[in-house]
Write a structure and sequence with these properties.
about 80 residues, alpha+beta
Amino acid sequence: MIDLYNKATNEPLGSVTEADLKVLVDALEEESSEDQDYYIDAATIDVIGDGRASDHLLKLLRAALGESEGVDIRWNRR
């Protein structure tokens, strides 16, 4: 399993599958091959919500975003 966290607060957001992580890796920009964080905003959620992302992943990302313009998340493999 892969755990997602709010990068700024280190608050756990939930766990996702390898398939969910692949959606994030494939859809979002990484600064390096070792990059494990992403900036998420409403547009990002719309892009991956085109059928690629699971409902579970979308729910976690929407909860992490809340009312903010955007949020940095990071992931860690258990």
